[in-house]
């Protein structure tokens, strides 16, 4: 399956999600996410240095996908936002768990 097909499928599956949503993710298990007009997937693998988290987002099926990769140790988080959107995507690690949460406005 191409990345654009995956993102398009993720977009359709997000239609039922509310404005704020949090869920725990397991290794290699992809989760659909939305960040304003962007939609995509998040997954992670367990590495020696921490959890390698890969987030891929695009605007619609024809948008150019962007990928954000981070390695999270216990207690760390990654926050993704766009300047034109009030939404934020927070990926946080607590012990052996990884939580993906979408929320409203980003506070500085």
TrEMBL record:
Residues 1-22 form the signal peptide. Keywords: Signal. This is Uncharacterized protein. The lineage of its organism: Bacteria, Pseudomonadati, Pseudomonadota, Alphaproteobacteria, Hyphomicrobiales.
